Amino acid sequence: MEEIVTKALSLRIEALEALSHVQDEKGLEEFYVQYLAKKGLIPGLMTLMREAQDKAAFGAAVNSARTDVTAKYEEKKQVLAKAKLEAKLASERIDLTLPGQPCLPGRVNPYRLVIDEVVDLFLDMGYEVCEGRDVETDKFNFELLNVPKDHPSRDMQDTFYFGDDYLLRTQTSAAQAHKMLEMERKRPIRMIAPGKAYRRDDDDMTHSHQFAQIEGLVVDKGISLAHLKATLELFAKKMFGEKREIRLRSSYFPFTEPSVEVDVSCFNCGGKGCAMCKGTGWIEILGAGMVNPRVLEACGYDPEEYSGFAFGVGVERVAMLRYGIDDIRRIYQNDFRFLKPFSIK
Ligand code: PHE
User: Fold this and answer.
1) Which tens digits make up the pLDDT trace of 240-291?
2) C-beta 288 within 6 A of ligand 1
């Protein structure tokens, strides 16, 4: 046999022998470069074709070297890949007999507790719960509530605007106007509307640019301030204890007339005066009043026939007073250490 053909055949044997010693992917890569890559030994044999006398025999020997070695190389590649995967699976095996991570029961944010409790109280009294909307129009947040464009009270309720007409509502009172306009044939209303409100407030221990309110609205024939007072007294007792009393101080809101600020007797000192009530014996909890006849009229109710009362409570304020929370920001942080003591009754 021509020497050059023998050379091809022995290169084949040498390559297969070398391949059998390959242990890992790195070795396989080196093997490939040495024998099979474009500039490797086996393709390199072709450059000797000119020297071969029996070109057919030489060609056949080179081809079989290439096909055999390539096939064995592919085989080895798969074996190594499979071994690698198996090793990975073995190292990542999950031990199902290990005990799991304890799953701690969730807690209820005090803010939620207050809303749920107030809503329950008013549902028991036959109120319905209405969902207002966070994005309001100028008309519902202000104009229908007797706050025209140039009204000075708008200064205290600057908020986030989208164009001229849309804004993040500054008060849940906007839900009052929606409810009154929605009512067909102007029937009586007893509604409660919890939700968020937004104002350009500097965030500090007691203020946040976003907070929650609960709005109440009753409209019917013959509703008087006495109904408002009795309702809020019940509310104060339920929220702060049976012994609580309330006091109404006259105030001003454009959408109520007369308007009142409502104080509850201090539940910390029982009315004697302490740091919590700043020595006065009373703590302010909400704003309220008789629905302004101009609002009734703007929302389609005849003020000669109907009257009503409305109130708005700050949820965080009630939660802070009830649970002795010193900083409003704790309510929003959802830190489990803070939430731990709170749960559903
Ligand atoms: N909307 C008022 C506020 O945000 C509260 C309020 C509601 C007052 C309803 C009177 C009647 O301050």
Assistant:
1) 999 999 999 999 999 999 999 999 999 889 889 998 899 999 999 999 999 9
2) yes
- Look up the pTM and report it: 0.71
Centre of ligand 1 to C-alpha 199, Å, is: 13
Contacts of 159 (CB under 8 A, 6+ apart): 167, 168, 169, 170, 198, 199, 200
Angular region, 177: left φ>0, alpha ψ -120 to 50, beta rest: alpha
Distances (CA, A) of 325 to 190, 285, 287: 31, 15, 21
Convert 277-315 to b/e letters by CB count within 10 Å (16 or more is b): beeebbbbbbbbbbbbbebbebbebeeeebbbbbbbbbb
CA distance 249 to 284: 10
- pLDDT over 80 (residue 1): no
Cβ pair 320, 194 in contact under 8 A = no
Q: Where are the alpha helices (DSSP H) in 92-193?
A: 110-124, 138-141, 174-182
- Ligand 1 atom with minimal separation from the 172 CA: 1
106, HSE (Cβ side, Cα atoms, 13 Å): 5
Q: Is the CB of 159 under 6 A from ligand 1?
A: no
The candidate with the shortest Cα–Cα distance to 117, out of 335, 325, 323, is: 323
For 62-102, the pLDDT digits (tens) are 999 999 999 999 999 999 999 999 999 999 998 888 888 88
Query: What average pLDDT does the segment 117-138 reach?
Result: 96
Residue with CA closest to ligand 1 atom 12? 287
Q: Which residues pair with 262 in a beta bridge?
A: 248, 286
Show the CA angle centred on residue 153, arms to residues 297 and 205, nearest 5°: 125
Residue 309 in contact with ligand 1 by CB distance below 6 A? no
pLDDT band at 103 (very low <50, low <70, confident <90, very high): confident
From 191, 248, 255, 295, the mutation candidate for ligand 1 (largest count of ligand atoms within 8 A of CB) is 255
pLDDT tier at 52 (50, 70, 90 boundaries)? confident
